[in-house]
């Protein structure tokens, strides 16, 4: 299995699992984040590959490079741009207390220093 096939499968599964949450999030914020992460990937992957910190097996990649970074490397920032906000939203919803404003102990005015 090539890296491209694996990346497409993982991204498709991520979108399928998190579609409901992704619809609630602002698309512009997710797109801006994806663009920034892809630019950072472009710069730093190119530098790390040029420094011979890692190499790719030629039979596992397409051979299409963007300024020195293989095309397959851009699936990771896309997965992060999609997955992290979804996890943040889902986990944040679970940790939010279910108390009402007039419930005992929710008035913060009497917590100050006396």
Features:
3 helices, 114 residues, mainly alpha, 2 strands
Based on secondary structure, the structural category is mainly alpha
Share of helix, binned: 55-70%
Please tell me the overall pLDDT. 83
Low-confidence parts: none
* Morphology: elongated
**Rg computed from alpha carbons, rounded to a whole number of angstroms:** 21 Å
Report the major sheet.
Answer: 2 strands, antiparallel
Strand order of the largest sheet: 1-2
How many strand segments? 2
- The SSE string, one letter per element, is HHEEH
Total count of helical runs of at least 4 residues? 3
End-to-end gap: 67 Å
Strand content: under 5%
Number of domains: 1
Structure explained in plain terms:
Residues 6-87 form the Lycopene cyclase domain. Keywords: Carotenoid biosynthesis, Isomerase, Membrane, Transmembrane, Transmembrane helix. It is a multi-pass membrane protein. It is found in: Membrane. This is Lycopene cyclase. The chain is built from 3 helices and 2 strands. The protein is mainly alpha-helical. The chain has one domain (2-92). It has a two-stranded antiparallel sheet. The protein is elongated and about 50 Å long. The mean pLDDT is 83.
Q: What's the short version?
A:
With 114 residues, this protein is mostly helical. The chain has helices at 3-24, 27-50, 75-95; strands spanning 65-66, 69-70. Helix content is 59%, strand content 4%.
Secondary structure topology:
Layout: H1 3-24, H2 27-50, E1 65-66, E2 69-70, H3 75-95
Antiparallel strand pairs: 1-2
